[in-house]
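May I ask for a sample protein chain and its fold as tokens?
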Amino acid sequence: MPSEELTVFYPSGKSLRFFGRFVKHGKLKNGQNARYGVAIESLESVVVFDNGVVSPGSILLLDERCGVVRDQSGEIYTPRPHMHSFPSDVRAWMETNPDWPARLPQRRESSHP
């Protein structure tokens, strides 16, 4: 997938916008009990909330329910279709929050967080 501006929306209401490349979603390692997640390569230095600065070339491993990853053309990832693969605690959270991520705005915001 080509690199471009990506926006990641979280259930907390926070969002993160940066220049990067969507790598994959699914099991992050081989194995029956491997954690499901979303991997994105950051192609610029970016501050990730209170966790510090991520360097270019770093892989961000996102919570599987992170919500939605969007690029210039629309959604790349949304969690609902994949929730059968999530750990039981995350599936339970998704079931008790049926409006997530449907409550997100349908169009992209225009400024960095």
